[in-house]
Amino acid sequence: MNDINPDNFKITTPVKLADLDTKPADNYDDDVKKDALEKLSGKLAKLQEKMYAHNRYAVLICLQGMDTSGKDSLIREVFNEFNPRGVVVHSFKVPSDTELQHDYLWRHYLALPERGTMAVFNRTHYENVLVTRVHPEYILNENLPGIENVEDIPADFWAKRMEQINNFEKHLSQNGTIVLKFFFHMGKEEQRERLLRRLEEEKHNWKFSPGDLKERERWNDYMACYEDMVNKTSKPNAPWFVVPSDDKEMCRCIVAGILLSELEKYTDIQMPELDDKVKANIALYRDQLEKDA
User: Fold this and answer.
1) How confident is the model over 88-109, as pLDDT tens digits?
2) What does the domain layout of the chain look like in residue ranges?
3) pLDDT under 50 in the chain at which residues?
4) What is the distance between the terminal CA atoms of the chain, rounded to a whole angstrom?
5) Residues 83 and 146: beta-carbon distance below 8 Å
6) Which terminal Cβ of the chain has fewer Cβ within 10 Å, N or C?
7) Which distant-in-sequence residues (6+ apart) come within 8 Å of 52 by Cβ?
8) Alpha helices of 55-156 — where are they, by DSSP H?
9) Is residue 87 within 8 Å of residue 102, measured between CB atoms?
10) What is the pLDDT of residue 210?
């Protein structure tokens, strides 16, 4: 599966989500997809080891999508070959009381990856222009000056937040963090079927929440917010990739393929060479260790 072209999924001009497929244009047998993902994951793991040794870049991978869109399973399958020291996953839930005492980006700053490592944000700082936009009453929990009621939220509030996020990501990229963002584009009917499976399969029952159905009722509102989000915040330094996710296995292959293609562009990432003095004395060090036997 060598035909995964990141440009087919990257948002570079305004789009309408309704015009983008939720099913992949091409599909393959399950065995082909499984083999492709295994190879891609292995290559990514090797690249990450090189990045860890190089210790110049960090990578921030942002995953957004509606409930059941496959974010959790993708993390498990794509990153299972990685050395645990090289990748950290952060799943952002409802902000805590402590987090609400700071600006909305504060908790995300704390979770940013160190140089040489990757961080996966499973749900991200974009929740602050998605969930809170669909449910503006949540903004009241932030105790912002001048906002006592929902009616006090200015008309340009969300546009300003997205501008702040753009500046946040620009700052990261200018200081050595590679930012790659993925929206899992799933159809409403596919979500219905996945929610039904959660109810019908005992091992998945724990994942179901009645709140999923309440959020599903706001599907069109969420799609409008997602569309505005990808159009206003997909930048060359921090692009959005809209990935069809009705087929979970194919979605994983596409994301892994995009990650590999984008990271391989950084040709300066190389394994460091030994210090000349160390290299000149390798035989001496080997002799010392052999004598210790």
Assistant:
1) 999 999 999 999 999 999 999 9
2) 6-291
3) none
4) 48
5) no
6) C
7) 83, 85, 86, 116, 117
8) 71-78, 97-100, 106-110, 131-134
9) no
10) 82
CA separation for the pair 85, 55 (Å, rounded): 13
Write out the two tokens for 66. 């509606």
Alpha carbon distance 260, 41 (integer Å): 9
Q: What share of the chain is helix, strand, coil (3-state, %, to 5)?
A: 55, 10, 35
* 8 Å CB contact between 127 and 111: no
Decide: helix, strand or coil at residue 64. Answer: strand
H/E stretch holding 178 reads: strand 177-185
User: Which CATH number does 6-291 carry?
Assistant: 3.40.50.300
87 phi/psi in degrees, rounded to 5: -145, 135
Distance of CA 218 to the CA centre of its chain: 23
Q: Tell me the two tokens of residue 200.
A: 């019908």
Strand, helix or coil for residue 184: strand
Please name the residues in contact with 36: beta carbons below 8 A apart, sequence gap of 6 or more: 1, 28, 253
Question: What six digits make up the tokens of 18?
Answer: 């309704």
Q: What is the pLDDT of residue 2?
A: 65
Radius of gyration of the chain (CA): 22
3-state secondary structure of 114: coil
Instruction: Work out the number of other CB atoms within 10 angstroms of the CB of residue 279.
Output: 9
